[in-house]
Amino acid sequence: MNESPVNTAADQPHRFDPAGGCPHADNARLLSRGAVTHAVLPGDVQGMAVLGHDALKEFLAHPDVAKNAEHFAALQAGEIPDGWPLKTFATVQGMTTADGADHRRLRSLMGKAFTPRRVAELQPRITALTTDLLDGLDQAAAAGDGIADLRKHFALPLPMGVICELLGVDAEYHDRLHHLSNQIVATDIGPQEAMAANKEMVEVLGAVAAARAANPGDDLTTALIAAREENGDRLSPHELLGTLMLTIIAGHETTLNLITNAVRALCTHRDQLALAVAGKVAWADVVEETLRWDSPVSYFPFRYPTRDLTLDGTVIPQGTPVLAGYSAAGRDKQAHGPDADRFDITRDNTTTRHLSLGHGAHFCMGAPLARMEATIALEQLFSRFPDLDLATPEPELPRHASFVGNSVQKLPVRLRAPRP
């Protein structure tokens, strides 16, 4: 670790706003103070955040940093109440809260659904679904004086449809699962609402699992139910439901935000959009620059040092809940240059790769799928509607009520230029 002079009492701790909002101004201020900051989480829970690119990359792959909440000191001491809005991130049983052999076991089970071959086979289906959704977006705009909510009619149903098809989740559950996902990732939710959302999510996913057990198919849920390790142990019921929950939330919320953020960025940087539409820059490069410049996840909970660590001169005490500051790292000027806060799809992102899809053992397994979905979505969207523009000024768009997810709640767009 960095052995620079130790800072044990950094500047005033950053108090995360449960209501969320745009993170970039706060990120810039925090980065000017250092790569690591003390933080106050909802409910006055003490934590920390790592937001500098180099420090975050080191932290994410450090052998003395764990994901299992058995290392969360305040939780183990009984200081975290039921209904704490971030508790699910710590206690849900699945890949994102497992370490070592448990993590490798769960990841190997999931990996069968995200092999390069399986992802490549999804391309025709994603392309066809995108075309159908653009028809629906056009119809919604026609019924709305040329304006439609792109997030609702396009950016949401695309990844939700794909991940639910992979899991074998019937369409009747899609809207409810998205609503519950939103509540689970919200940071401004009350204790009773938080517990009710988690309870209902478990009930819905239990119904999904029961349906697949009664009627097996060629889907991931069926495979997880039938999965056995070499020693014959079945995936536990809690692990099954936790894995389904994490896969649905991560499999659609992040891609939904990625597509939404890319459209916002392109519409407010028409010169960049023109380069992509003209074929001078690949749409895949648009996706990568969006991931860096406006990460779909802002601060992800949690990791816990298993011993006191010194990172960029700041001590992170053992057992502290630490947030991974992806949106901040993406605009870290020490890593991405003095123009890091500028959206530039011609930027060479190969020199310093962004961390928005993670790093190390917990790197996002669905990254190739998310990239494919977003690339196909943007190329088809702007090929069909090259004059598409925001119908509401970007600063006026309502933001997510969360400091975990990073996007807006709605994205009203005008598909065609107004007639003179």
From TrEMBL:
Matching Pfam families = p450
Biased composition range(s): Polar residues: 1-10
Q: Where is this region: Disordered?
A: 1-22
Q: Which residues form a coiled coil?
A: none
Cross-referenced CDD domains:
CYP107-like
* SUPFAM superfamilies named among the record's database cross-references: Cytochrome P450 (SSF48264)
Q: Which family does it belong to?
A: Belongs to the cytochrome P450 family.
PANTHER family for the chain? CYTOCHROME P450 YJIB-RELATED (PTHR46696:SF1), P450, PUTATIVE (EUROFUNG)-RELATED (PTHR46696)
Q: Which protein, by its recorded name, is this?
A: Cytochrome P450
